[in-house]
Amino acid sequence: MIPASFEYARPRTVEEAVGQLALAGEEAKVLAGGQSLLPILRMRLAFPELLVDVGRIPGLRGVRTDGDTLVIGALTSHHDVVHDPLVRRHAGLLAAATATVADPAVRHRGTIGGSLAHADPAGDVPAAVLALDAELVVQGPDGRRSVPAREFFTDYLQTALRPDELLVEVRVPKADAWGFHYEKFQLSAQAWAVVGVAALVRRDDGRIVESRVGLSNMGPTPVRATACEEALAGADAAPDAVASAADSAAEGTRPASDLSASAEYREHLARVLTRRAVLAAADLT
Amino acid sequence: MTRISVKVDGTAYEDEVEPRLLLVHYLRDRLGLTGTPVGCDTTNCGACMVDLDGKSVKSCSVLAVQADGGEVTTIQGLASADGEWHPLQRAFHEQHALQCGFCTPGMIMAARDLLRENPDPTPEEVREGLEGNLCRCTGYMNIVRAVLAAAAEERRHQAPEPGAVAEHAEPSTAGSGAPV
What we know:
By secondary structure, chain A is of the alpha+beta class.
């Protein structure tokens, strides 16, 4: 199908983009790579009056380090995230999760910022960013503010972004000392996750010191498996202890029932996939 | 209406387009380049895949205005000026990698992108590289064979030119993957 008509703006700076968003209010949508937005427009699930195409704003693309933090520009494509040596070294979980997003052509166009701002709980990038305890830097008319990933995702396809704010960068604490794994269950090669588990584990010889587990598609937002994280803290780095902790992975989640899976099946998947992800992240496979 | 200038298969075009015009419709309806089909229209099937500025994209999921200033290569731009087929086109023909042919333009564009990044892929890597392309005649076996055959042929015939840099190759393959 063909999208409904809209006006099109191509700002040259973040300030200009924010000004256009402020003027249009709720009637505007930000266009970056368009790999989530254009399918929605084509299916006529949204009717924005204005698309603000931020895709060519300089300075929003690329990866750098800032002390103990990895800074990823919002316009960095999934393809570039997957292949970036800094991301691979300091936030391997993000590269691993991003590598499973859709297919190569979509990863060429789709951006990390677009994926986070779209906030599909079935997306792979949001759960990874949540597990990495990233900070999302957004810019509005009054300047920049930083939103912790835990506070960014507020509801299904909803975020803490105000209508006149633009996500400009993702700041990820370097996770060099953490083992990681992204475990995704999908029904076909390029499909969304039925459930996905983004796991980080820090080990001290025979013990798991700390873990962080982000879940995709286990509720209206990506969520952390906090009960499982607590059960893993100080646990033996052994398959039995991990399996026992993973049994609590679905606690506190609110998965949907849909054509892909029932809520009960998703809870089952969360437990199984969490066990696999944590075992792999803890190097116990 | 928005003015765009775009180079497609080596020819420069300037046009006024509605912002909502999808790249695939621009190519087919405005430029008459119907070699790129519309398949699923939902970013799934990959039939409409073209190359935009050196990277494969699904042209049903790119606005024509987003291609402004860019360079597009479609399946119709692959053969050489004298009509000689691209090695991938030849391999698809020889390996019977198409039945109805609807997915073929996208398959070839995706395979071309894959071989640019990885000139010597394993069968598994070919499958992963083509995960965004669906064939409903279920010809995947022969498609994988064709891509491997084309890769082998290109490696035979294209000794790396000194100083050649692949368009977006990984550092580990830089210099060994001349643009296809």
